[in-house]
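User: My advisor, Dr. K., asked me to get a structural model of this assembly before our group meeting. I'm new to this, so sorry if the format is off. These are the inputs:
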Amino acid sequence: MVDYFAIGLTHLLMALAAWRLVLRGDLDREDAPAPEEPGA
Amino acid sequence: MLDLALASFVVGLLALGLKRPFIWVLAYLYVDIVAPQKISYFLLASIPLSLVVFCAAFGGWLVADDKTDSRFTLRQGLLAVLLAYCAVTTLFADFPVEAAEKWGWVWKALVFAIFLPLTLRTRLRLEAAVLFMVLAAGSIVITGGIKTIVSGGGYNALHFFVQDNTGLYEGSIISCVAIAIVPLIFWLARHGTIFPRDWQVRTFALALVFACLLIPVGTQARTGLLCIALLGVLSLRSAKNRFVYLGALVLALLVAVPFLPKSFTDRMQTIENHQADQSASTRLAVWAWTLDYAKDHPFGGGFDSFRSNKLVIETRDAETSGNTTAVETSTITDQGRAFHSSYFEMLGEQGWPGLALWLWLQASGLWQMERLRARWRKRAAAPGAGPEAQWQAPLASALQQAQLIYLLGSAFVGIAYQPFILMLIGLQCGLWSYLKRGDTVPRRPAVVIPVAAP
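Assistant: The format is fine. Below is the predicted structure of the whole assembly, which you can bring to the meeting.
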């Protein structure tokens, strides 16, 4: 049960991070339009 | 069910890589740390996952990535020389079969550490790599942390979801790595841009740090306790208000100690009376043997050269009651004991040149991070410095602290080629090269001071 929770939580966060990264232009080029600073 | 979920996660990552090939590099970090093919029973276990993802990461970089900003740094050169040197010692190894087996994973870890910095061309990529390493290691750490709270753990009793003592799934290794990533977790919580820096991220980060601190309790690896102590000292350096911090530290310690399981405090007390402890005595005996061995084999005996050792160990157990001390001595013979220290692992396997290369690689990392830290702290404090100049010094500092914790832990555990640590070195090379590149392009127009003609 604990294993499933730990795997589930971290994998969900990694999936979400990967998704957000794909949408950001500055992943590949820094001269791309800068994203809004989240939470800043 | 778990099989299917893990497989779809990996497939999803690989699919996202079609749009941004850098995701494949992150996928490799994930696969190498978590080893989902070992958790899985059939789907992922049936394909050479690590190889497939590495080919995707390397191929993606080769074909689709912009390479104008990629630089080959001195430390990547050191890694390459170490790789070549290890290849030669493997050919002439004392135990060719065992050496070939270890070479089988060491070369991959070294090649990836050489390759990783070439892909870390942007700030976001550096952050993404740190995030994936922390979350991937987090999947093991969170399990361990919760199980420690529930059961109290025990030496070799904490079960992770992979039971084969490889990679990060070994008690002493995860104890050291879990503490080493704590500074990186704090950096992500303070300077991350992938997730919003809100209360949710802060709560998760704090919970993850707590889980990290519980790992040495759960695995009862004494090395981990030393690592925590070093982490405490190191964080004093970056603390804003040292006295408040020190007070909080002492308070936390006073609160925590009564909650520690008795088996843990008992085991930790053996640090003091190490002569009575077979594991510590064996270590000292193996290290003495290695020094002798290096006299006859200055160029090392190849991987797993410890297999030829035969040790006679004397343990002394002193028990004091009143004013009499009874000393009980017993002799144990042992053979084929592992090095139990990365420094001696390097010396015994790769000889003095190998040890020198490895030390150079480590020392240059500490020095580079120190320089970056000093330079960027100054820039961050300069008038007019914007938010874009604030993340560099803390990242260099976190990478340096992680490495120092590793260097302490590795004195007692043979983890000289631990892939996770080699990735950290890759990150350092990437950061060094990224910030150096920025320096060659003037950020603002240079101020020209008119000099009067003579």
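One thing worth pointing out at the meeting: DSSP finds one helix and no strands in chain A.

User: Perfect, thanks a lot.
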